[in-house]
Amino acid sequence: MQIRLATSADQGCWDDYVGNHPEGTAYQLFAWKNAVKKAYGFEGPYLLAQKGSTVCGILPLIDFSIPFFKKSLISLPYCDAGGVLADDCETADKLLEEAVALASKTDAIVHVRSTRELPFFSINTTEKVRMLLDLPESSEIFFSGLKSKLRTKIKKPLKHGYEVKLGSCEFIDHFYAVFAENMHELGSPVHSRKWIEAIVSEYQEKVKIAVVFAPEGIPVAAGMILLHPTTVSNPWASSLRKYNYMKPNMLLYSTLLSFASDHGYKKFDFGRSTPGEGTYQFKEQWGAQPHPLYWYGSDEKNRPTETSGKVASNLNKRELLARAWKHIPVSSANWLGPKIRRYISL
Prior knowledge:
Layout: E1 2-5, H1 11-20, H2 30-40, E2 47-51, E3 54-59, E4 62-64, E5 72-75, E6 85-86, H3 89-104, E7 109-114, E8 129-134, H4 139-144, H5 148-159, E9 163-167, H6 172-186, H7 193-203, E10 207-213, E11 219-227, E12 231-239, H8 248-262, E13 267-273, H9 278-284, E14 289-292, E15 294-297, H10 308-326, H11 330-341
Parallel strand pairs: 5-7, 12-13
Antiparallel strand pairs: 1-2, 2-3, 3-6, 4-5, 7-15, 8-13, 8-14, 9-10, 10-11, 11-12
């Protein structure tokens, strides 16, 4: 078996392997590497395992360098999970060993965010879960299985003249307008518009954007999905708080879920949540079930266990920063946010 760095010429066989692997996700497609490079300039040392000319494993990594901080190889930044895909445990371990060896050359840390447990590492550093919904064969079956209260919420914006449209690059402006305003309301730096454009450009037919419009034509909710042959992943969805009384987010998600059901996808990945919190409950109402996420670092065995007091302190700091960010004018936040967001890997 040979393990080497993948090149652009390997994109076809790489994507075929990800698409055919039962644990593959859209984030592991080669397009993520290309989009990260195009938008933020980080290189992607993607590891490819082969037996002869046959691919038997992959490990996508991004060389994530923050000024004045220790260098990291992350699989993968800006999403819930990347991680290793392989034909067997031996190949997976060899890919991870190669990643650690690659990182050691520059005194870097390897961070792997996985959808399954990896015995290669010892400590899982997150309690967050991935919310997955098994999809029926059609949107008709999907709607018939919803509770009447949920169907009422979906119909409410439609009854008041709201409409939803599904497309791709033609809705980047609308998506980003909602996304940026929502991030400011949450007190979080927003990704650059260039990042969204890079995702749409690199994923091409494997990305869809849905936008809900108010009767006056204003976009009030928007979401993006990335398409893997079996699983639809939803990296971002936003709605404007002042329109939440009209439930546009319900219409948004019903549209994305209907598309996924009608086009033969088996699972819908709502993304990560903390059990018991609001986003968890929102996803749970659609029937999504929690699946553990496994986030590892190659330095965890040398890191002291974090006490609950320290965790609480970190949470308080984040809350204070979020409150401060909300008070920055929107125009300033949208200019400064992408410059900061580039260095936030989650």
